[in-house]
Design a protein that fits this description.
By secondary structure, the chain is an alpha/beta fold. The chain is 36% helix and 19% strand.
Length: 467
Amino acid sequence: MSELFSMASPEEQKLLIRTPRILQNTWDTFRSMGRRLPTDRVDLTFIGGGLSTAETLRLLCERLVDAQKATSRKQRIETRVVESYCDPSGAMSGSLAFGTKAQPGFLLSATVQNCGCPEFHDWLLLNADEVFQELSDSNDILVHSWITENKSLISSKHFEDMHIPRKIFGRFAGTRMLDALYGAEKSGVLRKRTVLGEAVNITQDGTGYKIKLASGDFFYSQLVVVAIGNSWPRVPPHLVNEPRYFLSYANGSLERLSREGPDLLTQLPEEQRRILLIGSRGSALEWIHYLRHQPRLLKLACEISIVSPREGLPELPKDYCQSAETLKEMGLLTFSLGRISSIHKPRKTTQALVVEFKENPAAQPVFERAAIVVNCSGRGPIEYTSSRLLNNLAKQPNIFPTTPGRDGFIVGTNCEVAHTPNAFVIGPLLTPENFREGVDSISTVNRVANELSGVLLARLGGIGDPH
């Protein structure tokens, strides 16, 4: 501990002093990234540090501790988690939906009593005062609106029917994972290290796998779990630096729209001040909810238009649906059935983008002018995503075979990649048809984590360093 403290800057030392004991290992792994990554072989690697990894790792830690008590096991599993962003404030910091940088006002799609995790309600009751005080101190407009609308339920601690901010659930899940991790490390059955970086390829190496990072570093792992979240669409080359084109998932997109959107709209005639959303799933509904709370944008926009091949919007959470109904009543929100084929960029920035789409494959193209386009379409064919890792895995069909629709990988009932032993895929990359309740739901995450942690325990039974 003294060596770790001496490595830290004065600001970091202050944070370390008030860091709970179960977080000190996370801090240690964060600081260790100043050293060159060793190329030794580890037992287990997770690619991605989001909710799916946190739940699977938590349950694996608990199972390993229980197995040690039952069998006097004297082996330690060496584990690494590769993620592109991590800070010492807690676990899952890099998760777009639940982590440190997640939008604080975005909500769980299910209520507390229906989210598939009864322990969350108990944790909320114990930590309500601290959690909601931190929310009250936030300057986020969505958070303040949510607190105002749910003030009576918060004060009475009737959380059952509430849609809670996802970031709060992320804090709960991260705390549980760190607690289990601390217990496993204290018992000597597992050691976890965080690798800060982007994994860009996984190749077979003997009975295990070689994991290559964007930095050029690499290491070897006996088992690997790919859990990098959604396969987001790649930005068309001609729109890479286009200020009027937004990606729904990109960090800072909402803030940039709030900051730059009014100027982008005022450059155009009133009849062309359209904000167009591509897609009609959860991400689009989140943006509708956000726009509902942006009075400057609403005053300037002539229309908020949704273009999607699917009819209708999700029915939950109710806060989002109320925002959509409000915008409809204001005469701003419209819906068009169709699929985007291209976005044409005009020569002048004072001209609107031209969006081309078809209502059905046989129909004539329809052209819409839009001052701002937000891509909320989510997953797409793996080879067209922005992920270098997924692009490279798709080039190895013998190792990582893709589904017929190429929107995920072919896996067995235990999430193991078909014909590829000890390589697993979890999270949104799982094919949706395998899960009636949706691959993104917390109940699915918990169920998959429970099943996979058991499989990993069995596979790790014969490996690990004696201690």
